[in-house]
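ingest -> validate -> predict -> emit
validate: passed (alphabet ok, no gaps, 460 aa)
predict: started
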Amino acid sequence: MSNYQSSEIKLINTSLIDPHPDNPRKNIGDVTDLAASIKANGLLTPLSVVPDRSRYRVIAGHRRLAACKQAGTGSVPCFVLDLDPLQQLEAMVTENCQREQLTVLEEADAIQGMLDLGATTASVAHRLGRSGDYVRDRAKAASIDNEVRATRDDFSQLTIGQLVAIARYDGQPDRQKKLAQAAGTSNFDYILRNIERDDHNQQWIESVAALLKNADGINLIPDPEKPYSDPEWRYLGCMFPSAGTPEEVIERIREQNPAAVSIHMEQVYLWARRDKTADAEKEARRAAEQAERDARRHALEEYAAASADKRMAWLHANLHGIKRAQLIETTARLGLLQIIDPDPQGYTRALSTWNDKCGAEQFTTISGIEPERALAELRYHLDEPDWAVWAVQILAARIEWFIDPEDWTTISDTSRRIPGYYQILQDLGYTPTDDETNHLSQLIAAISEADSDENEENNQ
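emit:
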């Protein structure tokens, strides 16, 4: 307000002063205590107003105005300012931001209002004393339409990170509503990563389709209406986004040299010419079973990647806020979980082997440190008082590196450690999603069944 402050004070009757319709702060709250104070001591700080024909509009002091009216105050001292619409909005935003009275969404809408009135991102950032990215993020959040905002009563309380993530899917209200409902829960990051993965898969198949149309020597055919009982084509298999980049997929297709390929949803189907003398029913059944196995494998790969991303994102965001004593205990538990591995080289390789990707990628995700700096940072911090948080990051990265999608369905030395690993994470405060809980329950049941079968064999 200082840049716009007037040195002249005028007494104005409160009946002639109105709240500003563009005030960024939508809810001024309860002013009962403030009204009592004004009634007893008078208004100590003048309002700032602008003329509005024969009336006035408040620029700074909406709560004081409401309290004065509630207290029955007649005339109040006011600074009368001469501001254009953009200056009025700038002044109100600055006033509220300085007093930390705006929600993120209120501030976002106000910033967008300033931009709509002709202000530049740089000028708004300068006026608020913020960065350009700060202003741009809030402008993105302001783009979320009212239909999405109405999905929850506390939408205005969401964080800027959640709002920017929701705004990213402008024009896709179903996705925005789904994210809005999950905001503030452990499912938010999981749902966001699934949406991002769906987009990646869609982009992948579009790129593959474009390459196939121009690929010499590859027979691209329309997807058969009955893929497992087509009279001409016999199903050989399919390729998912996990098969590699679009260019790598084209090379793999050339290596396998199928008679034809087709685009099926987000997959590439491979075909051979059907042998007319073969048993069609047997072949169709085999193809259907293979497709089902492919789909299950793909779904498992998707789940394993999403759950690993969620675990490591949580560790990155929360480890530094956990008490040192609990981190030391966690270090011991993670260490015990790993050193009992029957392969003595499994979890205990020297840090130098990280050049062979023995946990380096996972450590980078959890710690936020680039691989080339990891060894130097670790060797320094493991001799410092904060060694515990770094030890937890190392040990968690090793476990994450060992867990493969098959470990969720196949009983192995690694899969037997997954339930223990989750228990350690939950004791730190991690909350599994419903999907993780279901997979975990199935894995524990499978381990129990395998142990029971082994005991029966030993007793015979």
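The chain has 18 helices and eight strands.
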